[in-house]
Design a protein that fits this description.
Strand content: 35-45%
Radius of gyration: 27 Å
Number of helices: 4
Order of helices and strands: HEEHEHEEEEEHEE
Largest sheet: 5 strands, antiparallel
Distance between the termini: 61 Å
Number of strands: 10
Structural class: alpha+beta
Length: about 180
């Protein structure tokens, strides 16, 4: 039996495997792993009184986003606002409060945006086509990361609607928002 062939192959393979192994471990050293945690924040339902003439305009109805909700959620989990790394809305639901048993038949589309100061509002949820007979609307989320707007402490919600039929001059709705928050540990 000729022992030279397996020994030669082994003599070449061992240094190559050592080089590959060293390269893999150096790359793993270069990557900074930042530990993160995430959790949900549920905002209480926001009452929205809609004047059909105002909400159809470009500026829409404006609501304040309650910053205390996020602050309390962070405090309950023992995090600080400085640890926030991401904030994304995960649910936006709208339903009539008054008149009772109303439907959104007269509504063509709905948009919910988040704005701070004079900056252009960022769309967080929308429903481009409202189904007939709907009494509750589950809005499509855009997935926009609105971390900086929320961190500012002055975020406001801009709510707009387009109509394709008669709407009561004044109606009351409830807007329910949930968000996903990521924090660095």
């Amino acid at each position: 039996m000729n022992w030279n062939m397996p020994l030669r192959a082994l003599a070449v393979a061992l240094p190559l495997s050592a080089l590959v192994w060293a390269g893999c471990s150096k790359q793993a050293e270069k990557e900074d792993i930042v530990p993160e945690a995430s959790f949900s924040v549920e905002y209480p339902a926001l009452p929205v009184t809609i004047d059909s003439a105002t909400v159809a305009g470009p500026s829409g109805a404006v609501l304040e986003l309650d910053n205390n909700v996020l602050a309390q959620a962070l405090q309950a989990k023992q995090y600080t606002p400085g640890q926030l790394t991401e904030f994304t809305f995960t649910k936006a639901r709208l339903y009539f409060s008054t008149p009772v048993n109303s439907s959104y038949n007269s509504v063509k589309s709905v948009a919910v945006k988040l704005a701070v100061g004079d900056a252009a509002p960022v769309t967080i949820a929308k429903l481009p086509a409202v189904p007939n007979g709907a009494q509750t609307l589950l809005l499509d989320l855009t997935g926009a990361d609105v971390l900086q707007a929320v961190k500012s402490g002055h975020a406001r919600i801009v709510f707009t609607m387009e109509f394709d039929g008669p709407m009561p001059p004044v109606s009351t709705h409830m807007l329910v928002l949930d968000a996903r928050v990521k924090v660095s540990l």
